[in-house]
Design brief:
mainly alpha, Inhibitor Of Apoptosis Protein (2mihbC-IAP-1), Chain A, three-stranded antiparallel beta sheet, 5 helices, disordered N terminus
Length: 140
């Protein structure tokens, strides 16, 4: 579902909006680069964790077993089990990680993803997991 311009809070200043969109654009390329590290990832029979989810929450594949590493904080996690949530594990084990802090700030702002989608012509969908639609946009 394409996110339209009407979901954007009209009280956002142009400078604030531009800075936020630029921050999001800088994040997409690294997400794709992290995902590319999972080419040799072997599906773990004890886990249903997907490389796409791991990359999205800041992890790159180390090339060893099912071990992943966050480039921002150095956290390494392996031995993934069914039911483990990569985002929650990252937040729980390294709440001070700059990637975790940035992700929370960016995706919890109302309309920020909409702004990014509009600026890049991407098709984006709403996900209550990542966007709090009832909050207001603060200057970032």
């Amino acid at each position: 579902m394409a996110v339209g311009i009407h979901s954007i809070n009209q009280n956002v200043s142009s400078n604030s909006t531009n800075r936020t969109v630029l921050r999001l654009q800088r994040r997409v390329k690294p997400d794709l680069c992290r995902l590319a590290t999972f080419r040799q990832w072997k599906t773990n029979t004890q886990s249903n964790v997907s490389p796409a989810v791991l990359a999205k929450v800041g992890f790159s594949y180390t090339g060893k077993g099912d071990k992943v590493r966050c480039d921002a904080c150095g956290l390494e996690i392996d031995n993934w089990k069914t039911g483990m949530d990569p985002k929650q594990e990252h937040m729980k084990r390294r709440p001070e990680c700059q990637f975790v802090l940035d992700q929370h700030e960016i995706f919890s702002k109302n309309g920020i993803l909409s702004l990014f989608c509009l600026s890049t012509n991407l098709q984006c969908s709403k996900s209550n997991d990542h966007i709090a639609y009832n909050s207001t946009i603060d200057q970032i």
